[in-house]
Amino acid sequence: MIAIIRRFLVLLVRILVGARSEWRGCAPDPSRRIYFANHNSHIDTVAVMAALPWPVRRMTHPVAARDYWGTSAFRRFIAEKGLRAVLIDRKPLPDTDPLAPIERLLEEGRSVLIFPEGTRSTTDEIAPFRSGIFRLACRLPDVDLVPIHLDNLQRILPKGSMLIVPITCTARFGKPLRVEPGEEKAEFLARARAAVIELADGGHTA
Amino acid sequence: MTSMFSLVLAAILGLLAVASSIGFILQRRATEPGSVATVHNLNARIRSWWIMVAVFGGAILFGETSTVTLFAFLSFMALREFWTLTPSRRGDHVALFLSFFVVLPIHYVLLGTEWYGLFSIFIPVYAFLILPAVATLTGDVNEFLARSARVQWGLMLTVYSISHAPALLMLETGTPPALLLVYLVVVVQLSDVFQYVWGKLLGKHRFSPNISPSKTIEGLVGGGASAILVGTLLYRLTPFSPLQAAAISTVIVVAGFFGGFVLSAIKRDLNAKDWGYVIEGHGGVLDRLDSITFAAPLFFHIIRYWFTV
Fold first, then answer.
1. Which residues are CB-contacts of B108 (< 8 A; sequence separation ≥ 6)?
2. Which of A38, A89, A141, B116 has the fewest CB atoms lying closer than 10 Å?
3. What is the SS3 assignment for A151-203?
4. B154-203: per-residue pLDDT in tens?
5. Is A203's pLDDT higher than 70?
6. Ranges under pLDDT 50 in chain B
7. Rounded distance, CA B186 to CA B229, Å?
8. A22 pLDDT exceeds 60?
9. Would the CB atoms of B274 and A166 count as touching at under 8 Å?
10. Looking at chain A from residue 176 to 205, which residues have their Cβ under 8 Å from any Cβ of chain B?
């Protein structure tokens, strides 16, 4: 039953926004990875999931904010069952480790999808990255971090609107990166953000 | 209509079988990388033609409702391709939503219910006024004129113009209207195919390198003349005399040329090579229907004015 709902979600997203994938810097691979993407709209988690080929999608868990996706039974169901999401606290209590559930998944050999901007941006600019991605990369230095750029999402479902415009979205996957030995937090976050921005230029003429 | 249509369908399937065989032979012969790529693209195009003929032929056989529904879906895909490449701002969001989910369905319902009076003015008059009015409510005046023009032209090209092909079904000319639609589609698409073939075989002089680098004068003239010849020979599908069929095919072919050029010019303006990716070897739906956008309204009005009873 859940599997059917999952397939239905993917199909719905494919029809509505296309959710096409373009593998520029790496090939699809079900081995564990940390995918990170720009964050513009509610659609983007499902868009990336729908763009991943099934063997990869099966092993990938999006990371979602508990203060949004955990607030009602319906949202919780869509997030946890429909998308296999792992819910984390954006404002964790002191002495708790919000990244622990993500680490656990990666240790099991699964992949995660995170949105390091923290919140959906309201402009075309990609906001500075929060530090969670850096801490993950330091704790798991042998995991590839794959940058993803999602285009058009701002125009498909902008923040503050309930109306979906069925423009095609392409998820562009870039070259994997890792933390370099001795690399500072700010340096790494800037490099990761630049990797996403670099994928932004339209693939149509390429 | 059925026997005539079966004949046309059989001829097209025969033509495709020949094309597939030629593609197969060329594939075995091609050795240099350049020609391998060309043959690969040719075979992808032929494969897609089989699917397109099956979908279009199937819709015609099932009747008017399925034909109109197919074109509504094609318009939807074309409008989506248009807006995927064309920039829009936050202030256009509601206008775009209305284009896809209100204007397009209403327009095709008017077509399906044969309400010609409102069908012919709904987009050019009412959408033209209502959509910019809605856009003012967001208060975004940035490039307002250009944005309104894009919203309207998106609808005119992908919904209004394309819908004039299935609109042929509402015309009473004494011949089955589905045959008129088949006639239009066959002449327009053969013109494109013949241009491609003539261009590949004999093309030397580029017609308009800025707009459409692969189009050559040899391709245009040879392809156009071949399509007009076929259009003349197919006069039995229509209420036209052979001479009228020749003249009307010429109108279709010339309008089709310009449809292709105008849509290519827009693509170049938007820095894109293809409108989309859904039809293997061809690009998007709009890459295949670009000639129809100009040919369909002209063909529709010629028939409506001179040939309806």
1. B68, B69, B71, B72, B75, B163
2. A141
3. CCHHHHCCCCCCCCCCCCCEEEECCCECCCCCCCHHHHHHHHHHHHHHCCCCC
4. 999 999 999 999 999 999 998 999 999 999 999 999 999 999 999 989 98
5. no
6. none
7. 12
8. yes
9. no
10. 202, 204-205
Taking contacts as CB-CB distances below 8 angstroms, the residues of chain B near A20 are 277
Select from A158, A168, A205 the Cβ nearest to the Cβ of B90.
A158
Query: Cβ of B96 and A165 within 8 Å?
Result: yes
Question: Could you give the ipTM of this predicted complex?
Answer: 0.83
A77 or B50: which carries more pLDDT confidence? B50
Residue of chain B whose Cα is closest to the Cα of A15: B77
Cβ(B60)–Cβ(B5) under 8 Å? Answer: yes
The pLDDT assigned to B223 comes to 95
- Which member of B88, B96, B272 has the closest CB to residue A205? B272
Give yes or no for A152 touching B (CB within 8 A).
yes
Hey, are the CB atoms on A165 and B277 less than 8 Å from each other? no
Place A123 in a pLDDT band, splitting at 50, 70 and 90.
low
* pLDDT at B192 (0 to 100): 94
What pLDDT, on a 0 to 100 scale, did the predictor assign at position A204?
A: 41
- One DSSP character per residue, chain A reads -HHHHHHHHHHHHHHHH--EEEESSS----S-EEEEE---STHHHHHHHHHS-HHHHHTEEEEEEHHHHTSSHHHHHIIIIIS--EEE-SSPPTT--TTHHHHHHHHTT-EEEE-TTSS--SSSSPPPPPTHHHHHHHHSTTSEEEEEEE-SHHHHS-TT--PPP----EEEE---B-PPTT--HHHHHHHHHHHHHHTTS-SS--
Chain B nearest-CA residue for A168:
B84
